[in-house]
Amino acid sequence: MDSIEIVLAMLLAVIASAYVKRMLPAGLPLPLVQIALGAVIAAWSGHGIQLDPELFFLLFIPPLLFLDGWRIPNTGLFRDRVVILELALGLVIFTVLGAGYFIHWMIPSMPLPVAFALAAILSPTDPVAVGSIASRAPIPKRLMHILEGEALLNDASGLVCFRFAVAAVLTGTFSLANASLTFVWLAAAGIAAGVAVTAGVTWLQGRLTARYGEPAGSPILVSLLIPFGAYLVAERLHASGILAAVAAGITMSYVELGGQAMAATRIQRTAVWDTVQFTLNGVMFVLLGEQLPDILRGASESLEQSGHINPWWLVLYAVAISAGLIALRFAWVWATLSVTLFRRTRRARGAQSHKPHWRLLLATALAGARGAITLAGVLTLPLVLPNGDPFPARDLTILLASSVILISLLAASVGLPRLLGGMHFPEEPAERQQEDMARRQAASAAIAAIERAELALADAHHPDVLPQAAARVIALYEYRLNVAWSAEDQSKEHFRKMDKAERDLRLAAMEAERTTIFDLARHHHISDETARKLVREIDLVEARHQKQAK
Fold first, then answer.
1. What does the alpha-carbon distance between residue 482 and residue 474 come to, in Å, rounded to a whole number?
2. Tens place of pLDDT per residue across the chain (550 aa)
3. Which CATH number is 410's domain given?
4. CA 343 to chain centre
5. At what angle do helices 394-420 and 127-134 cross, to 10 degrees?
């Protein structure tokens, strides 16, 4: 099978995985289904794809990190910044040192720098994998925000540590002082490159749009190219392209608040990026399954060099490393949380602090599932050393990383629903209050704008038509400002229930509208163009109502 046919088969496997997951009664995580389909492709094709590590890293890492930075809740990121930094920086270094020495002690044939590289690439967590599991486990929203923020930053810190370890393998030397200075430059210049590229590109795009209008599809293509541009600029500066992609995404989230993009562009761009994220994550896991046969053969050779012929040693190593990572994570979470609560108690002069339940602490440790970033990073290990010798224990390292991904996904899938089942977590009232306040102020501003527009458009419309139209539009916004928004919580809850009922009725009505339009088009009573236009209008309204219902 040609390489292009394998790529097409992998894309079809990504599509099929979403349906296969829904058909399976066990509720397996999507990445496990994709890995299995990749193994099927490998058995069918008979040979694996030869990967260029640098090209693979460039294609997969920047857009995923950019999207994580773009969509991370900035409010939660800054509110829990201390906890997130403790997990994203301190835990990464703690994991690299602890797991690195443990792996080298357990597998002496694996050089210590390679063990550190394996520990470093296993330190980043994957919120996408946990998010798919969270639908069946009541993970508190604030904990999910912390896990997302941790995953955003530990991707960068873990991959930077990984590159340091790989460089030590290639050169045979490592200097802590030089590494510290290099890290400062990598971080500072990488973040600056990401911010500068995003701000510069969006500013130029805004100026061109203001002068010449917005070409269809152009803003979406620009957003797709920004992470690659930030990454390449940072790499040219010998800085961290990883941090540049993250910084570019966070900068993009602030640029988005300026409201520069058109509404239709935002809707289309969201759909495109959702597709990109689903495709890249899926292809990486399918690719892992496709590479498994070759990885297993190479790992068996590395295992023989360590003196163990029985392949069950591979399983033992993977389980031991996974258990060690969970233990390190639990110890770090418990220790840092104890210090944080102690400091809070001292500042409050003896006030009582509520310690989280031990089940929540263990769930936080299990929620550190590994995924796409770990897989993408470990596959970039060089094939040979500068002197031409094979990279030591490369296949064994890839196999162990892949096995830990599988075990961590299974542990989170099985453990989280059982640990958190039956636990009830209070809602965050601040978020609901902010949403209520924003709705009221937006509705008041809309009514004022309608009244001003009514005066400005008086000469352009019939005197009897404009007041009636204005009254109808204002009535929609006054509905949000009616007596239901009184100070009584009971009235607010009644309004929310009524709003949900109205949403359900609107969705049913729009489904009937769409069915009728399709029926008219099938019987040639209206043109296809008219049908597409009307259906698009209904789809946009329905998407808004469905998003509000989540």
1. 12
2. 566 777 788 889 999 988 888 887 666 777 778 888 888 888 777 655 666 667 777 888 889 889 888 877 766 677 777 888 888 888 999 999 999 999 999 988 888 999 999 999 999 887 666 666 655 566 777 777 788 778 777 877 888 888 888 888 888 777 777 777 877 888 889 999 999 999 999 999 888 888 887 787 888 999 999 999 999 999 999 888 888 998 999 899 888 877 677 767 777 888 899 899 889 888 888 887 787 777 777 666 666 665 555 677 788 999 999 999 999 999 998 888 777 766 666 665 555 556 667 777 888 888 888 877 787 788 788 888 888 888 888 888 888 998 898 888 888 877 877 787 766 665 555 556 666 666 677 777 877 887 788 777 776 666 677 777 778 777 777 776 664 455 455 556 666 666 677 777 777 787 888 888 888 888 888 887 888 888 888 887 777 666 665 5
3. 1.20.1530.20
4. 32
5. 30
Q: Are 259 and 238 in the same domain?
A: yes
Its domain, for residue 469, covers 431-485
The pair of structure tokens assigned to 258 is: 């300026």
| Neighbour tally for 479: CB within 10 Å | 13
Domain annotation covers residue 352: no
pTM score: 0.75
Rounded Cα–Cα distance for residues 142 and 127 (Å):
13
